[in-house]
Write a structure and sequence with these properties.
Length: 188
Amino acid sequence: MSVVVLTAVITLSACGSSNTVEPKEAADIAVNTIIFNKDVEKYKDTFGKSATALQKSYKESFTKRFAANIKITDGSMNDDIGELYDAYVKRAKEVTKYTSKVTNDDKKKPTVEISVNGLDMASLRAERSAAFKAKVKADPSIEKDAKKNAKAVIAGYKATIPKAEVKPSQKSSPSKAESRGEQRTLED
């Protein structure tokens, strides 16, 4: 999820507000809303958009992408994938840390660098993969049956995510914030 923050293009608009939000504050509100489910009211008050709709959109996008990756796009695994997403979000809230700083204070196109210590996905995938291989060794039919395969992958992630550790190094991403009157756009 934290990677989502860094790779997604997020349009933030300060509709109805007479004060333009500073770039660092806009970045902090966006990250706090997306990762930690904090600043939800600030997000709505400041940007005129529903944080709930944003969060729902991320969950739907995750579900579609994950379903495509496991090659089960008929919707039959969506509830399981949704539970996986919820487990991921819960763990990210528990351990993720971030910092933000303005690196270019240009009034029209300032740049905010967001550094995130998120979940160590490489270790998580390696652990899940080892568990999957053990399941396939015990039941070779898993490898040939798409539904069994998908269930084994999801079960592996559900088992590993709650104990996932923070990646030891930060991932930094400069985000440019363009000001258009009352509107602010952050993009990676």
